[in-house]
Amino acid sequence: MAEPKGNRLLGALEVSSRLRIDPHLEPVELKLGTVVCEAGGLLKHAYFPEGSVLSLLTVLENGSAIETANIGREGAFGLFAAMYSRVSFNRCLVQLEGGMVRCPIELLQSEFRNSEHVRNLFVSYSETLLSQVQQTVACNALHNTEQRMCRWLLMMHDRAQGEALPYTHEFLSEMLGANRKSVTMAAQALQSAGLISYRRGKIRIVDRAGLEKASCECYAIVKERFDAFLIPPSTAVQGNTSQRKR
C-alpha cells in the first residue's frame, strides 16, 4: 500500500492502523491566513500537512496573538484532541499554502486507545511539539528580533522547499510578536548583509549558510528534535517502536 504522500507522521503508522485510517483521509485546500480552529474551539478533525504549514498562536485577552509553534509535514494539528479532549488550546491558521489532509478525531481516538504503537507515536510527537513551544518561548524572551526572524525564516524555508516565502512585514510582526518597525529594520539588515532579498511581499533566502550563522541556536535545536522524534530513545518509550520510519 502506498504511503500517504508527504506527511511523515502518517507515513510512520503501522499497516493495520493505516488500513483503517486511509479511507477516511480527506484532502483540504485552505488559503494563507485561514483560521483552521480558534482557541477554545471544538475539533472534529486532525489536520496533517503535506506541503502546507500550520501556525499555532497563543491568543491574549486583548486580542493580540503570538506564534508559539508551527507544524509542517512532520506532524499534525489536533493530536492532543485525539488523545485527551476535543478542544483546541490555540488558534491555528494556515501559514503556508500547500497540500493537507484531515482525519476524523473519533477515528484517531479509537486508534490511540487500541494501539500501543499509535500511543507511542502520538506521545513522542506531542512531546517534540511541546519542546518547540518551550524553545520558542525562550527565543522570544531572550533573543533579538533579527535572530528570531532568522530562526523563523529557516524553519519556513525548510517547509517551502526553497521557494520564495509570501510574507509581509506586518504578517512577520504578528508571528514574531514584535512591532512592525523592528521587523522592518531586521529585514533590512538581513537584506543588506546579502542573506535575503525582499520585494513585493516575497522573501527569498539568498545565503542559507549565512542565515543559519546569523540565527540563534533555537533553529538547530528544534530541527534536531523533529528529525529524531520518529526514532525516540528506547529508554523514553515503552513497547515496540521498530516499525517507525522516517
Tell me what the structure shows.
The strands form 3 sheets. Strands 2-6-4-5 form a 4-stranded antiparallel beta sheet. It is built from 10 helices and 9 strands. It is of the alpha+beta class and 246 residues long. Helix 4 packs across helix 5 (116-142), helix 5 runs antiparallel to helix 10 (218-228) and helix 7 (169-176) crosses helix 8 (180-192).
What sequence of helices (H) and strands (E) makes up the elements? HHEEEEEHEEHHHHHEEHH
What helical percentage do the residues reach?
40-55%
Instruction: List low-confidence stretches.
Output: 237-246
Q: Which structural class should the secondary elements be placed in?
A: alpha+beta
Report the sheet-strand fraction. 15-25%
Query: Number of helical segments?
Result: 10
- Overall number of strands: 9
Mean pLDDT: 87
Described by the principal axes of the CA atoms, the overall outline is globular
Largest sheet: 4 strands, antiparallel
Strand order of the largest sheet: 2-6-4-5
Task: Please compute the radius of gyration using only Cα atoms.
Answer: 18 Å
Distance N terminus to C terminus? 16 Å
